[in-house]
Amino acid sequence: MSGEPSIFFADVNERQGSFLRRTFVLGGVSALGITALIGRLGQLQVVQAQEYATLSSQNQFNFRMVPPPRGLIKDRNGVVIAGNRPSFRVLVVRDETKDLDQTLDLLGRLLPDTLERRRAIIRDVNAASKFNPVPVKSDLTWEEFAKVNQYANELPGVMVDMNEARYYPFGGSFAHVIGYVAKVSDRDVKAIRDKGEQPPALLFNPSFRIGRQGVEKALDLSLRGEPGGNRVEVDARGRVVAEDIGGSRPAVPGKEVILTLDADVQNRALEVFGDESGACVVMDVRNGDILCMMSAPSFDPNLFVGGVPTKTYRALADYERKPLLDKTLNGTFPPGSTFKPTTALALLEAGVDPNLTVFCSGSYRTGNRTQRCWGRHGTQNMHDAIKNSCDVYFYAMCNRAGVDNIRKAGLALGFEHEFDIGVGNQRKGLLPSTEWKARTFPRDPVWHPGETTSVAIGQGAITVNALQLAVMTSRLANGKKQLQPRLIKSIGGVEQPSGAEAPDLPFDPAHVEYVRQGMIAVANDRSGTAYRQSQLGLGDIQMAGKTGTAQVRNYGTGSRKSEIWALKDHNLFVAFAPVDAPRYAVAIIVEHGGKGGATAGAPRAREVMRTVLLKDPDMRARIERPLPPEPTGAAIVEDGVVGAAPEPDVVATPQAPRAAPTTTSGPRPYLSEPRR
Amino acid sequence: MTASALSRPGERERVSTKIGQIDWRLTALLCVVSGTGALMLYSVAGGSWSPWAAKHLIRFGMCLALMLALSMINIRYWFALAYPIYGMALFMLALVETPLGYTALGATRWLDLGFIRLQPSEIMKIGVVLALARWYHGASAKEASFHWKLIFPVGIIGLPFLLVAHQPDLGSAMLIGMTGAAIMFVAGLSWRIILPLIVAAAVLVPPYVMFGMHDYQRHRVLTFLNPEADMSDKGYQIVQSKIAMGSGGPLGRGFGLGSQSQLEFLPERQTDFIFAAFAEEFGFVGTFTLLACYAAIILISLRIASLSHSHFGRLAASGVTATFALYVLINGAMVMGLAPVVGVPMPLLSYGGTVMLTVMIGFGLVMATRVHRYAELPKGHGLI
Q1: GO molecular-function annotation terms (chain B) (predicted)?
Q2: Are residues A107 and A253 in the same domain?
């Protein structure tokens, strides 16, 4: 610093003056800024305080959905066939894990199978919001649960909880009829949105399962229940800090559904099918209650609750015996000779004299075609033809009724009909008619008499399902009412309408009785097609039936001997019992059984029927009682004494005044057959 | 300034006299604000002295001692060391760009010297103030107003600004730039320069936001313009902060009872957003009082600046005050949703040692300016 001062006094003064003015401005600007902040605070804290207080409490309090327990499904006796069981789960909260990879490594040591699904787990965890727990594994065993709990301190962000999972205690027995529940898929949500509705929040709860098949699907809304809510105080991570009891409401459990099914019968039916494929339906012929609706082979619906692995699913879906297909409702089969009672009824209604005889030489010519019978039956009237299942009789007679009358009788007995039993997805089959022929085959629209012969013996284009066969048998056994099947007994305690409230059958009762006598003879006349296989061994209780063998390939090519399963004949049997006062009807379809309706079908029907009868207290009383001098008369007295028949007027009233089936125009005394 | 202090030679250099010259109102206000900070840190920790409140108090105690000690140093030495301090800070800023720089959270802001991790941009906040004050001390009114020599102060500001912005630490860079601009303004920059600059900024800033910024910086700015569009992160912070302040209402929810801060909805509640936590628990009455304290600190400091007999002292004190005011205004505007979320804490209220150290060293300089307001400084453009 030498020489002259570089700044002069005046300049210094000017500099200071300018500084003071500018500092004043600076102070003013600062004060203005702070005033602006205070103004803003006034706006936030005084003017909008209420609004922000609301937002704050929305932050602070949260409604935690409490998923409702799904409604139980029970059988007619109150046995739970679809219930809920406690399930332990492991969940991961992304925000609380220090390092997701490391946490999963540690978790993998405790639960090795989480390592296999690691990529899916990471995807799920990253897809969820970072405070939301994501289930990583459900259904821990007690040991796994204890292990994870033990290491909880070393596993930040991992928690264990308990929820309810659907459980089917009988495994495959009811798999088709009650179906199963599964995780909600995007398609479920989309389906609801497509209907223009808002999917309920419950659907997005990770533990919620939606009904996928059968009753679980059809009654899903009733079974779901109403979710409850817990008002809880949460922190920013979504951790529950405190619970507000007053602000909470409990979940409403789903409605209890009681079915008409009987678990014992259903289990026995699956049992008797062994390794065979097919369907069994049992109905109460007094009121239409379905006691059994079983499809074999089956699968374990419990597999689907937690999500079925693709390979397991493929193993089920690709198996030729189609365990996933519901063969009672969704599989249709040619009825074969089980259709003959219907044809016979159509003939009677068309005025054919049942005593007219036809000579069966083992084959029948129509035009230039020869159709074969399965045997040589000789001279046959209608009763013999049903008893022996003689094809030639029906070939010769069928055109006296014509295909449209046969169809009419078939419709009245329940074929080609979709029954309102509460579950959807039925295939109703086909009863051919001239109109159908014209519609389906425009090139050859005329119905040829030669085509009626196939329909008459239940072959060709005609297809039915197992429920329809059971309904047909029930209506014949009931004899009066056009009985409707009923599967859902009650929903949430509300009784569903009985199947007995139906119009009368449009047939002459005498005609129905004639056909029934034919079916009684099948099982009780020593020359009947299923005599040997139809002996119940329950005192004087007898079963009536009708065999059926449906060719998969052309009729009469001997396909029942085929080595290829899929080419073997279908074997069918329909039955009702007791013959004197019918209560139960059974329909059995053995898919590609390859034996014959009597060999493959009748023994199974017999076993199922025995189970049903032995569960009926009236029947038990009848079996246990000392042999009366007049069995059938006593049975009616029995009914009156015990008074157990719930709807006595429905119980085949036409035959009630009848003394005994044996005394009517039957050709043979089969009750005299000695018992072992 | 007592008459006796002026009357006897050497009196002013006595420590006892100097202590009498310390502005105790200012010191008390700093203590009140820091104490409030400690209270809030105690509250947001869920009623606990750890991890923040106790440390905050201890740090403040040490910084207060440092401030008082610095106020004893004659501003002649500040004056002499102005350029060296600036040069050293610049050197350290440059070192950050070398492998010595320590990277965290995607930005290289720290200098790792092995035993200590320094943030040179904080030192530079003082350095720029000292260097500018030093330069203007030797500049004439004309040179300060409208002169080619103004490229020197522009360079003094521009070099550290660019280095800090490159780290990237836009918050600190803006603070350095705006502090420098404030000093240039009070030093007497001509309106002929100021007005065109304001116009240019209004034209050029939007394109810079769109094309010149880092993604996260642009994101912050855009989020500020529409916080609800991004509820996940930055927008979430602003929204939660507004909810916290608004729900405080006129009287507040009570000490330790703010659900937004206690339940951790409020992000960074111990640092950048502590003012929102304070607003929630103490309401408008509390925020008004606290902002009044801040305003008082700023105005008292400016008054101290205006009383200095040396141009260096005036500019240094007002520069420090400008930095402090910018901290308060930027943080306040940010938590109230009036400015983008930039990492600028509320000085003395927020937890964080570096900023507290910077601010208290700054007030040490302000206090030294007051204590030594009659100090004679050499005239002219001396280098040292």
Answers
A1: lipid-linked peptidoglycan transporter activity; peptidoglycan glycosyltransferase activity
A2: yes
Residue of B nearest to A1 (CA): B382
Q: Does A676 fall in a domain? A: no
B 222-241 residues inside an 8 A Cβ radius of A: 240
Instruction: Enumerate helices (H) and strands (E) in chain A, giving the number of each.
Output: 24, 21
pLDDT category of residue A650 using cuts at 50, 70 and 90: very low
A323 lies in some domain = yes
Which CATH number do you get for residue A270?
3.40.710.10
Angle ∠(A124,A126,A127) on CA atoms, nearest 5: 65
Count of CB pairs separated by less than 8 Å, A with B: 168
Confidence of residue B114 (pLDDT cuts 50, 70, 90): low
Contacts with B, A 201-240, CB within 8 Å: 233-237
Domain that holds residue A602: 263-338+405-415+451-663
Residues A624 and A653 in one domain: yes
Mutate to test the interface with B, among A19, A21, A131, A233 (most CBs of B within 10 A): A19
Contacts of B288 in chain A (CB under 8 A): 38, 41
* Nearest partner of A29 among B309, B194, B27, B157, judged by Cα: B194
**Contact state of A59 with B142 under an 8 Å Cβ cutoff:** no
- Residues 332..351 of B with a Cβ closer than 8 Å to A: which? 332-333, 336, 338
- 3-class secondary-structure state, position A69: coil
Residues in chain B closer than 8 A to A233 (CB atoms): 263
- pLDDT range class, residue A662, cuts 50, 70, 90: very low
Number of domains making up chain A = 3
Q: Within this chain, do residues A561 and A502 fall inside the same structural domain, yes or no?
A: yes
CATH code of the domain containing A163: 3.90.1310.10
Is there a single domain that holds both residue A33 and residue A144?
no
Rounded mean pLDDT of A587-613?
Answer: 89
Whether B137 and A6 have beta carbons less than 8 Å apart is answered as: no
Determine the Cα–Cα distance for residues A342 and A410; give it in Å rounded to an integer. 6
Helical segments of chain B, H only: 3-7, 15-21, 24-44, 53-71, 75-96, 120-137, 141-145, 151-166, 170-186, 191-207, 215-225, 234-248, 259-262, 274-307, 311-335, 353-371
Residues A218 and A276 in one domain: no
Hey, is the C-beta of B186 within 8 angstroms of any chain A C-beta? yes
pLDDT of residue A623: 87
The C-alpha torsion from A484 through A489 and A495 to A496, rounded to 10°, is: -30
Same domain, A464 and A546: yes
- Which residue, A210, A231, A259, sits at the end of a domain? A259
- The minimal CB distance from A31 to the residues B295, B318, B321 is found for B295
Domain assignment of residue A503, yes or no: yes
B265 vs A contacts (CB less than 8 Å)? 59-60, 235-236
Closest CA to A69 of A302, A305, A256, A254: A254
Taking an 8 Å cut-off on Cβ atoms, the answer to whether A237 and B186 are in contact is no
In a domain, A352, yes or no: no
A19 interfaces chain B, CB cutoff of 8 Å:
yes
Q: Are residues B247 and A53, on separate chains, in Cβ contact within 8 Å?
A: yes
Per-residue pLDDT tens for A554-586? 555 554 566 788 888 899 999 998 999 999 999
If asked whether residues A123 and A233 sit together in one domain, one would say yes
Give the gap in angstroms from C-alpha A95 to the nearest C-alpha of chain B: 13
d(CA A341, CA A336): 11
Looking at the structure, tell me whether residues A279 and A252 fall in a common domain: no
* pTM of the model as a whole: 0.62
What does the domain layout of chain B look like in residue ranges?
Answer: 23-72+213-321+334-375, 81-189
ipTM of predicted assembly, 2 dp: 0.91
Q: Is the CB of A52 less than 8 angstroms away from the CB of B245?
A: yes
The answer to whether B308 faces chain A, any CB pair under 8 Å, is no
Tokens of B16: 């006892």
Cα of B133 to nearest chain A Cα, Å: 12
Helix (H, G, I), strand (E, B) or coil at A330: coil
